[in-house]
C-alpha cells in the first residue's frame, strides 16, 4: 500500500479514536448525571444528625423545692446564713439510652410573717386552710416548711407531713449539722412527692428491656392526647334481673371532679351503655360449702375476650379506650365471687387489666328474690361501684400509692380523688414518656427513610420532623429549668408532630420505580449505547498499551 | 323497583321536629315485629323491624339550621354476612332472645332480595315537644325464593325459612309480635292456611290498600306455651299461579345512555299508574363531580309535552370537594311516564384517583323520590304508638294519601381510563428510537473507511475448483 494512503488511514483511525473518546466523555460527564437528576425522587433534607443526637440526650429533671424555716427550727447562728440554695443531683439508673438525672434545687429561706402565723396554729388542717388562700404554686414545684422540733403541729411521734397540695412539713432539729440533717429529710419527702425511679420506670415501660420491668410491674396507660372512658353495665340475664344504675349522677359526682383535676393530662370523654345477654367467657366454679360461685384468678384473662366484641366503643375513637364493666351475674350463677391467687375471695369483687380497664362483679342481694317474682328490680349502689372504679382508674393512669418515708403523716386526697403533687408526678412521667416515644418515632423514621431511598419526602413531612425535633429539645430544656407545664405541652407537641410525620400517607405512595425496575426500563437505551462505547474504550486501551510496549522492545 | 336492588344501608339523621309521640314512653323501650307476606308468585317476604327509644338531653330548637343538614350516599357495598353482625349488635337482646333469634346470616343472605337499614332520628317526647327522645329503628327485609330454597315445595314455615323457631319474647321488649298478611286469602280459606290458627287478626290500610293480618303476640303466654315454641306454617291448599304482582301507583327507573367515553345522558323514568289522579314528586339527585352535568340540557317530558318543575334547587359540584345536588318538585300527570334527562361529560381523573379496577366503572348513587301517593282506600288517622311499626314506616299524612320514599337503582358509569402502563411504554419506545439513531451515528463517526482489494477465492470459487478437479479441468 502507498505511504500517503497509509498516512490518510492513520489519520482516520486517530479521528475515530477521538470521536469514540468524545462520545464516552459526553455520556459520562453530561448524560449520566442528567439522567440521574431527572429520574430522582424528591427528598427534602432531614435533620439526621440532630435526630441521632436525640438518642444521647441528657434529661435533667429539675424539681424546684422551697424550704422555709420557721423560728426555732434550727440553731440561731444557722438562721443567719439564710437564704441560700443547695442543689442535690443524682442519676436515675435505667437501662435506657436516655440518661435521666434528677435534680432537686432547694432554695432555703426564712418564713414570712403569715407563714409563721399559720404554722403556729394548733393543727395541721388549720394551717393548710391558711396556706390555701394565697395563689397557686407552679406545677412541679414543692414547698417544705421546717417547724421547730417540739412543735405541736404534728403528733409527737411523726417526723414529717405530706399534704394534698404541693406542700409538706418537716420537723427541724437543734444540732450543729442541722442543715445537713434537715436537707436529707427534705430530699426524702420531696422524692416521695415528685420523682422516683419507680415512676420513671413505669413510664418508660414500653422502651425498657422486658426482663427488668416485667409484667408484674404495673404498665400504665400509654400517653395520648385524649382518653375515652366507657362504663358498661352487663346484664346477662334480663329475664331475672331488671337492673337500674344512675350512671349520669355517679359520673357527675365522682368521676368528673377527678377528670377535671386531670384536665392537664389530656381530653377525656365519658360514655356509658347497658348490654344485655353479654356473658363472661368462663364458667364459674361452684363451691358447695358456701353455695356460691367462684372465678379463679387464672381464668380471669379469658373473661374479657367474649365481652370485648360487644363493647364496640374502640371502633369509633382515635384515643385509647378504658372500659369499666359492672357485671351482674345471672341468677343461675349468683352469688359470684372473684378469687385471688391464694383462693381467698377478693374484697372488692373486682379486678383490672392494665391498659384495658376494670371489671367489677355486682351480686344482687339474695333477699331481693324473696317473695317477688322475676324479674327482680335491682338498684345499683353507685357509691360502692364508683369507689372501685375510681381506684382502678387511678391505677390505670399509673397513679400509685406513694412510698412514704418513715414516720410520715399522710393526708388522704380531697374530693377530687387526686393530690396536686400526684398530678405533677403524672406530668413528669408523661413528659418523659412522650419524649422517649417521640425520640423513638423520629429515630425509626430516619432509619426507614435512610434505608429505602426512593420514598418521597415532601416538604410538609420534613417540616413536621423539624418541628418534632425542636419540640423535643424545647421540652428537655423546660424540664431542666423546672417548668413542668410548658415542658409537658412541648413533649405532647413532639409526639403529635413525630407521629404525624411517621404516619403521613405520602410516605406510602412509592409512585416511583424501585431502582432495579428503573434500570430495567432504561435497558433499551443503555445497552446499545454502552456496548460500543465500552468496546471502543477497551480497544483504545489495548492499542495504547501495545504502542507503549513497542518502544521498549525496540530498546 | 328491581327486586335485586342491592343492600342499601342508609342512615338518615334528620334534624327536624318529629310529628308523633304523644305519651311518654318508658326509657329504652323496645318494640319488635316480624311481618310475613306471602307473595302471589309463591315466594315469601319477611320484614323485621326493631325500634328502640331512649331519652336524650337534647333540647328541641325552633326550626332547623340547614347548614347542619348533611346528605351522603354510598352507592354500592358488597353484601357480606359482616353487614349483619354490627347491625345485630345494636339490638338490645342481640340474637339471644325474641324475634332476633331468627336472624341467621346463612339463611338471610341466601335469599333473592335483601335490604337492611338503620334509621336514627329525634322524636318528640310529648305533645308540646319540649324535650326529645332518640329513636333507633332497624329494619331488615328479605324475600325467600320459593323454588330455590323450598326444593319445589311451596309450603313455608319459620323453621324452613330461618332454620329456627320462636321460643320466647325478648324480656326487654314492650311489644313483640308476628304479623302474617292474609289479605287475599281471608275471604276464602281455599288457597292458604296459616297454622297455628291466629288468636286475633288486625285490619289496617297500608300503602293505600286494605290489609288483613293474622297476629301472634309473643308476650301472650298462650301463643308459645302449647308446644314451647312457635313454628308458624303457611300451607297452600291450591298451588299459587304465577300471577304478576299488582303494580304500585308510583315507581321509577333510571339508566345511563349514550355511546363513547366523552358524553352521556342520565335518564330517570317516573311512572304514575294512578288512573285519574296527578300528584307531585320530590326528586333528589346527587351526581359525583366527575360527571360534569350540563344543566341547560335538563329536560322533563310527560306524555310528549314539556313538564315544568315547580321548584328547582341546583348546587354545582366542586372538583374533589362536593358532588352535584339537584332537587326538583315535579307534578306527575295521571297514568303517565315522565322522563327526566340530563346530559353530562365524563371527566378525566388523576391517575392515582382511579380505583384498583377502573375498567369496572364508577357507581353513581340512586336518586331519591319522595311523594305523597293517593291511596285507594281512605285511612283513618291512627295513634302512632298503638299501631304496628310497619304502618308507621309509610305514614299517611291525611286520609287520602300516604308518604313513600323510593330509591332508584344505582348506576354504573364507565369513565375514560388511561393506559396505566403508558409511561413505561413511552420510555421504552423512546429509548429504542434513540438507541437506533445513536448506533448508526456512532458507527459513522468512529469507523474508518478504506478501500480493500477484492480477496482471492471465496466459497464459490473453491466449490468450482473442486468440481473442475473432479472433471479433470485445470482450476481457475
From TrEMBL, chain A:
- The answer, when asked if Plastid is one of the entry's keywords, is no
Q: Which UniProt keywords apply?
A: Endoplasmic reticulum, Glycoprotein, GPI-anchor biosynthesis, Membrane, Transmembrane, Transmembrane helix
Q: Where in the cell is it found?
A: Endoplasmic reticulum membrane
Which terms does the UniProt entry file under GO BP? attachment of GPI anchor to protein; GPI anchor biosynthetic process
Q: In which pathway does it act?
A: Glycolipid biosynthesis; glycosylphosphatidylinositol-anchor biosynthesis
Q: How does it sit in the membrane?
A: Multi-pass membrane protein
Please give the GO cellular component terms listed in this UniProt entry. GPI-anchor transamidase complex
Q: Where is this chain primarily localised?
A: endoplasmic reticulum
Q: Where are the transmembrane segments?
A: 19-36, 519-542
The question of whether ATP-binding is a record keyword is answered with: no
* PANTHER family named among the record's database cross-references: GPI TRANSAMIDASE COMPONENT PIG-S (PTHR21072)
The family line of this record is: Belongs to the PIGS family.
The name on file for this protein is GPI transamidase component PIG-S isoform X2
Q: From which source organism is this entry?
A: Delphinapterus leucas
Q: Source organism lineage?
A: Eukaryota, Metazoa, Chordata, Craniata, Vertebrata
Automatic annotation (TrEMBL), chain B:
* InterPro entries documented for this protein: PIG-T
Q: Which GO terms describe its cellular component?
A: GPI-anchor transamidase complex
Q: What is this protein called?
A: Phosphatidylinositol glycan anchor biosynthesis class T
- Alphabetized UniProt keyword annotations: Membrane, Signal, Transmembrane, Transmembrane helix
The transmembrane segments are 424-445
The gene designation is PIGT
Identify the species of origin.
Answer: Monodon monoceros (Narwhal)
- Pfam families in the cross-refs: Gpi16
The region annotated as signal peptide is 1-21
Q: A GO biological process this protein is involved in?
A: attachment of GPI anchor to protein
Identify the PANTHER family for this entry: GPI TRANSAMIDASE COMPONENT PIG-T, GPI TRANSAMIDASE COMPONENT PIG-T-RELATED
Q: Which domain of life is it from?
A: Eukaryota
Amino acid at each position: 500500500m502507498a505511504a500517503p494512503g497509509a498516512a490518510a488511514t492513520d489519520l482516520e483511525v486517530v479521528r475515530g479514536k477521538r470521536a469514540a473518546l468524545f462520545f464516552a466523555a459526553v455520556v459520562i460527564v453530561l448524560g449520566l448525571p442528567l439522567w440521574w437528576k431527572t429520574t430522582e425522587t424528591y427528598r427534602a433534607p432531614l435533620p439526621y444528625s440532630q435526630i441521632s443526637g436525640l438518642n444521647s440526650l441528657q434529661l435533667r429533671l429539675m424539681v424546684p423545692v422551697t424550704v422555709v424555716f420557721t423560728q426555732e427550727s434550727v440553731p440561731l447562728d444557722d438562721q443567719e446564713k439564710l437564704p441560700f440554695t443547695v442543689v442535690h443531683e443524682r442519676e436515675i439508673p435505667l437501662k435506657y439510652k436516655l440518661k435521666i438525672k434528677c435534680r432537686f434545687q432547694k432554695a432555703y429561706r426564712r418564713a414570712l410573717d403569715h407563714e409563721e402565723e399559720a404554722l403556729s396554729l394548733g393543727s395541721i388542717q388549720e394551717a393548710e386552710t391558711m396556706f390555701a388562700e394565697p395563689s397557686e404554686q407552679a406545677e412541679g414545684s414543692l414547698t417544705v416548711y421546717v417547724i421547730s422540733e417540739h412543735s405541736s403541729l404534728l403528733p409527737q411521734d411523726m417526723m414529717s407531713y405530706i399534704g394534698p397540695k404541693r406542700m409538706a412539713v418537716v420537723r427541724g432539729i437543734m444540732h450543729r449539722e442541722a442543715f445537713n440533717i434537715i436537707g436529707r429529710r427534705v430530699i426524702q419527702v420531696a422524692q416521695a412527692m415528685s420523682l422516683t425511679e419507680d415512676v420513671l420506670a413505669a413510664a418508660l415501660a414500653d422502651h425498657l428491656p422486658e426482663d427488668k420491668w416485667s409484667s408484674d410491674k404495673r404498665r400504665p396507660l400509654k400517653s395520648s392526647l385524649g382518653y375515652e372512658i366507657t362504663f358498661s353495665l352487663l346484664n346477662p340475664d334480663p329475664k331475672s334481673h331488671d337492673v337500674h344504675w344512675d350512671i349520669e349522677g355517679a359520673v357527675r359526682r365522682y368521676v368528673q371532679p377527678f377528670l377535671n383535676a386531670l384536665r392537664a393530662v389530656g381530653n377525656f370523654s365519658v360514655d356509658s351503655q347497658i348490654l344485655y345477654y353479654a356473658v363472661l367467657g368462663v364458667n364459674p366454679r361452684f363451691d358447695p360449702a358456701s353455695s356460691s360461685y367462684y372465678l379463679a384468678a387464672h381464668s380471669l384473662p379469658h373473661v374479657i375476650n367474649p365481652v370485648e366484641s360487644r363493647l364496640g366503643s374502640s371502633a369509633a375513637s382515635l384515643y385509647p379506650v378504658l372500659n369499666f364493666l359492672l357485671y351482674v351475674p345471672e341468677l343461675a350463677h349468683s352469688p359470684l365471687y372473684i378469687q385471688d391467687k391464694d383462693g381467698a375471695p377478693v374484697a372488692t369483687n373486682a379486678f383490672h387489666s392494665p391498659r384495658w380497664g376494670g371489671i367489677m362483679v355486682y351480686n344482687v342481694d339474695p333477699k331481693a328474690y324473696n317473695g317477688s317474682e322475676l324479674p327482680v328490680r335491682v338498684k345499683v349502689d353507685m357509691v360502692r361501684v364508683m369507689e372501685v372504679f375510681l381506684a382502678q382508674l387511678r391505677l390505670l393512669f399509673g397513679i400509685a400509692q406513694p412510698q412514704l418515708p418513715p414516720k410520715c403523716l399522710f393526708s388522704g386526697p380531697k374530693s377530687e380523688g387526686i393530690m396536686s403533687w400526684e398530678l405533677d408526678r403524672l406530668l413528669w412521667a408523661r413528659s418523659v414518656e412522650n419524649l422517649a416515644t417521640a425520640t423513638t418515632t423520629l429515630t425509626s423514621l430516619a432509619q426507614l427513610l435512610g434505608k429505602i431511598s426512593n420514598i418521597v419526602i415532601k416538604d410538609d413531612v420534613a417540616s413536621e420532623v423539624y418541628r418534632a425535633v425542636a419540640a423535643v429539645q424545647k421540652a428537655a430544656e423546660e424540664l431542666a429549668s423546672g417548668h413542668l407545664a410548658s415542658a409537658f405541652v412541648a413533649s405532647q407537641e413532639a409526639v403529635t408532630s413525630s407521629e404525624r410525620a411517621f404516619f403521613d400517607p405520602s410516605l406510602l405512595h412509592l409512585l416511583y420505580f424501585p431502582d432495579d425496575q428503573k434500570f430495567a426500563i432504561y435497558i433499551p437505551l443503555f445497552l446499545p449505547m454502552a456496548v460500543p462505547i465500552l468496546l471502543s474504550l477497551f480497544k483504545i486501551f489495548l492499542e495504547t498499551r501495545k504502542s507503549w510496549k513497542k518502544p521498549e522492545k525496540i530498546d | 323497583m328491581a327486586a335485586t336492588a342491592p343492600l342499601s344501608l342508609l342512615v338518615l339523621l334528620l334534624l327536624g321536629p318529629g310529628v308523633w309521640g304523644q305519651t311518654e314512653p318508658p326509657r329504652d323501650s323496645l318494640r319488635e315485629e316480624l311481618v310475613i307476606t306471602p307473595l302471589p308468585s309463591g315466594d315469601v317476604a319477611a320484614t323485621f323491624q326493631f325500634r328502640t327509644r331512649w331519652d336524650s338531653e337534647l333540647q328541641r330548637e325552633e326550626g332547623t339550621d340547614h347548614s347542619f343538614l348533611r346528605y351522603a350516599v354510598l352507592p354500592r357495598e358488597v353484601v357480606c354476612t359482616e353487614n349483619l353482625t354490627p347491625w345485630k349488635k345494636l339490638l338490645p337482646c342481640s340474637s339471644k332472645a325474641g324475634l332476633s333469634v331468627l336472624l341467621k346470616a346463612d339463611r338471610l343472605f341466601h335469599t333473592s332480595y335483601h335490604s337492611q337499614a338503620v334509621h336514627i332520628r329525634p322524636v318528640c317526647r310529648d305533645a308540646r315537644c319540649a324535650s326529645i327522645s332518640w329513636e333507633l329503628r332497624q329494619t331488615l327485609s328479605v324475600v325467600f325464593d320459593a323454588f330455590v330454597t323450598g326444593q319445589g315445595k311451596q309450603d313455608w314455615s319459620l323453621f324452613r325459612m330461618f332454620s329456627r323457631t320462636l321460643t320466647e319474647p325478648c324480656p326487654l321488649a314492650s311489644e313483640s309480635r308476628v304479623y302474617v298478611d292474609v289479605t287475599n286469602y281471608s275471604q276464602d280459606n281455599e288457597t292458604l292456611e296459616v297454622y297455628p290458627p291466629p288468636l286475633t287478626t288486625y285490619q289496617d290500610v297500608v300503602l293505600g290498600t286494605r290489609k288483613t293480618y293474622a297476629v301472634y303476640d309473643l308476650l301472650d303466654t298462650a301463643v308459645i306455651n302449647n308446644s314451647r315454641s312457635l313454628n308458624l306454617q303457611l300451607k297452600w291448599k291450591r298451588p299459587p299461579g304465577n300471577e304478576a304482582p299488582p303494580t304500585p301507583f308510583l315507581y321509577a327507573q333510571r339508566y345511563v345512555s349514550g355511546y363513547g367515553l366523552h358524553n352521556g345522558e342520565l335518564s330517570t323514568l317516573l311512572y304514575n299508574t294512578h288512573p285519574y289522579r296527578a300528584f307531585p314528586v320530590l326528586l333528589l339527585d346527587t351526581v359525583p363531580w366527575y360527571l360534569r352535568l350540563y344543566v341547560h340540557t335538563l329536560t322533563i317530558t310527560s306524555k310528549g309535552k314539556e313538564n315544568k318543575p315547580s321548584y328547582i334547587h341546583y348546587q354545582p359540584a366542586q372538583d374533589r370537594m362536593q358532588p352535584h345536588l339537584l332537587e326538583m318538585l315535579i307534578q306527575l300527570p295521571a297514568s303517565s311516564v315522565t322522563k327526566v334527562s340530563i346530559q353530562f361529560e365524563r371527566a378525566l381523573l388523576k391517575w392515582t384517583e382511579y380505583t384498583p379496577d377502573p375498567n369496572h366503572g364508577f357507581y353513581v348513587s340512586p336518586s331519591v323520590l319522595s311523594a305523597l301517593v293517593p291511596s285507594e282506600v281512605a285511612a283513618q288517622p291512627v295513634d302512632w304508638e298503638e299501631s304496628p311499626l310497619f304502618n308507621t314506616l309509610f305514614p299517611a299524612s291525611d286520609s287520602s294519601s300516604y308518604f313513600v320514599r323510593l330509591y332508584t337503582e344505582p348506576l354504573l358509569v364507565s369513565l375514560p381510563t388511561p393506559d396505566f402502563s403508558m409511561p413505561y411504554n413511552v420510555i421504552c419506545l423512546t429509548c429504542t428510537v434513540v438507541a437506533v439513531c445513536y448506533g448508526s451515528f456512532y458507527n459513522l463517526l468512529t469507523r474508518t473507511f478504506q478501500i480493500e482489494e477484492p480477496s482471492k477465492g471465496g466459497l464459490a470459487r473453491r466449490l468450482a475448483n473442486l468440481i473442475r478437479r473432479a472433471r479433470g479441468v485445470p482450476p481457475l
